[in-house]
Amino acid sequence: MRWLPIVKVYMLKWHTDPLAALISLQILQDALRTWGYLAVMAFIMIESSGIPFPGETMLLLASFSAATLVPELNIGLIIAFAALGAILGDNIGYYIGRTGGRSIIERYGRYVFLKPQHLKRAEKFFEKHGNKTVFFGRFIAILRTWSAFLAGVNHMHWRVFLLYNAAGGILWAIIYGTLGFVAGRVFHDNFPLVEQIARATSWIGAAVIVIL
Length: 212
Fold this sequence. Notes:
Elements: H1 6-11, H2 18-21, H3 25-35, H4 37-48, H5 55-67, H6 75-99, H7 102-108, H8 116-129, H9 131-136, H10 141-153, H11 158-187, H12 191-211
């Protein structure tokens, strides 16, 4: 099947997204076929709200499929729904972090593979880099899930958060959506190469945060 090369990118995400790795590739495919754009928005919104979930994988899969397997999917709408899911999910995560904060992680974090010591390290990183974390965190696996929550925990002003959050979410959706679509047109079945490029983009994002 032409879907099989995607397994590689999915398996390589286990070290950062343990809960996401429990969701089979077949579930992603079925959700995309059944719900289309809403599946893209929902998966990304769940991931962005603070739950490790294969939102980025869904975006890459949807955009890749739009160029190869499911031509009725429109790449512009995929990007739009992805950006909307990112913004909505991040605002949910922000609200949870601002109202519940650390107590939520201490009481329920173990159910989504999050531990208090993980939060401590992430908080230190957020305190140092601030707004850049909200913007560029969208491009980094762990920060993509936690950045909005941390912004809420640190009581970042909501309007400032929304500005950086929306800008980062829209840019991320455009870059990764375009990446998946162009790769589908150029490389066809070679989805592992798409994953490598996506990972490189994440590393570049991390480097930019540190440098700036």
